[in-house]
Design a protein that fits this description.
Order of helices and strands: HEEHHHHHHHHHHHHHHHHHHHHH
Distance between the termini: 59 Å
Strand order of the largest sheet: 1-2
Mean pLDDT: 84
Helix content: 55-70%
Number of strands: 2
Shape: globular
């Protein structure tokens, strides 16, 4: 059966129109073939749409979101590879695939270390103690909603939106025990806040880092979109706050205490983030390498705890770092693999570049930047921003800031539109889902529109 399917696919591709070469160059994106009007391109797009629909209906069909996108990614690249056979462009396709592997590898290592640390903090009872302290303060769900959101907004520019969502998501799950409604609303709030906070910092999101590295905006130049970013967060937060339960969490009967070494793990996590930033800024090395060094900190500390047990010699006082790695949310990591390679495949086909050219040529810079930002909720914002930077349209500084803003916050429109949302879907599995986020997309869209108008008005002199 498998051979028959491959044979049919090969036959369809063989009967397709002649491939159009994008360029005679042998390196760079232009060395790839234009498959947008080829059967391989149509087939790849159809596969992506079907996989995306299966992700949307994850709750109804009870299929984890990683499964359809992983299958789609493999089929898309296999389909494209068939189209490249005998064209002499196989090396360019191989280079594109390796670029995707590199992109995913860095994200995988970064995310694995971050989740391992969050798991270790949970195992050391840090979040249990934090919940007990917050509840003992008599804070209502309303106040907790705003507290977690504001913290996410201001942590994101320093830690990045992904790490921030993981940390604040764990806090939300801890303090929201007993109220599913609060957990859902607070998770949506954290995602929006983390993405909005990351938009005005070179370190807050991968897309801002790309724009900064390209030299389109200087380091301090990002801060002029601070107010639009605030507006992007505040508008949906105010709307959602009216639906937050008007009650106070029940007092915690027990008084949990931190396990041995908990404070050291907190320090090591902070040191790991600092190490990752330092590797990027000072050593010009991938942040993932700094994160792996940070994982080494945790591994060595867990060894120290094992070799130097406390006087009580209680078994649960030992921290097994490898067990915390095992508890990583693999569905989330595999989903990232599938979505990066599926979208990367569409980029190789030529759809992303074609879309960007049509937008900037036909609609103008402002409309194009707004639409691309909205599209980042469906298609990962990284390849979209890469496509824009590759095209390098002639835009004034205000427009580069606009695309930075929209690409950063547009992903908040859907739960799968940003790394923060996808990571939180794993952390808050069973509570925060695609559909629970979709219910508030209209409110997030209002904030998206308001932030754009604020930027156009406040920074009018930059256009």
């Amino acid at each position: 059966m498998v051979r028959v399917l491959w044979g049919l696919l090969a036959g369809v591709l063989a009967m397709s129109p002649t491939l159009a070469y994008a360029s005679s160059e042998t390196t760079g994106p232009s060395a790839l073939l234009d498959l947008t009007n080829h059967a391989a391109g149509y087939f790849a797009l159809a596969i992506f749409v079907i996989a995306y629909l299966l992700v949307i209906f994850e709750e109804a069909i009870h299929m984890r979101k990683s499964k359809p996108v992983m299958l789609a990614a493999g089929l898309i690249w296999a389909c494209v590879a068939f189209a490249y056979m005998g064209t002499g462009k196989e090396a360019a396709l191989n280079a594109a695939a390796k670029h995707n592997i590199l992109e995913y590898g860095e994200l995988f290592l970064f995310l694995m270390v971050a989740i391992t640390y969050v798991n270790s903090l949970e195992e050391r009872r840090v979040f249990d103690v934090l919940r007990a302290k917050l509840v003992s303060m008599g804070l209502s769900y309303q106040k907790l909603f705003w507290l977690t959101g504001i913290l996410a907004f201001f942590l994101s520019p320093l830690l990045d939106n992904l790490t921030t969502a993981l940390i604040m998501g764990a806090v939300v799950m801890a303090v929201g025990t007993g109220s599913t409604k609060f957990i859902v609303l607070a998770c949506v709030n954290v995602v929006v806040a983390a993405n909005a906070g990351g938009a005005f910092s070179p370190f807050g999101d991968i897309t801002t880092l790309m724009v900064w590295n390209k030299g389109k905006i200087e380091f301090a130049g990002f801060f002029v979109i601070f107010i639009p970013s605030v507006i992007n967060y505040i508008v949906p937060a105010v709307i959602m706050s009216f639906s937050v339960p008007k009650i106070t969490p029940e007092a915690v009967s027990e008084n949990p205490s931190l396990k041995r070494g908990a404070k050291v793990v907190i320090f090591l996590f902070a040191s790991t983030i600092f190490t990752a930033v330092s590797f990027k800024n000072f050593f010009h090395l991938p942040p993932a390498m700094g994160m792996m060094l940070g994982l080494g900190y945790l591994m060595m500390f867990s060894y120290f705890l094992k070799k130097h047990p406390d006087r009580k010699n209680e078994p649960d006082m030992v921290l097994d770092a490898f067990k915390e790695v095992e508890r990583v949310e693999w569905d989330t990591l595999f989903f990232f693999f599938g979505i990066i390679f599926a979208v990367g495949g569409l980029g190789v086909v030529g759809y992303l570049e074609t879309m960007s050219q049509l937008l900037y040529v036909d609609l103008g810079h402002t409309s194009a930047n707004v639409i691309i930002g909205a599209l980042s909720a469906i298609v990962d914002n990284i390849p979209l921003m890469f496509a824009v930077l590759t095209m390098d349209p002639e835009m004034v500084r205000g427009q580069w800031l606009l695309i930075t803003l929209t690409a950063g916050v547009g992903g908040s429109l859907l739960s799968i539109g940003s790394a923060a949302g996808v990571a939180l879907m794993g952390t808050a599995r069973g509570y925060y889902t695609f559909m629970s986020h979709l219910k508030w997309t209209w409110a997030i869209a209002l904030g998206y529109a308001a932030s754009i108008y604020a930027h156009l008005w406040i920074n009018a002199s930059l256009f």
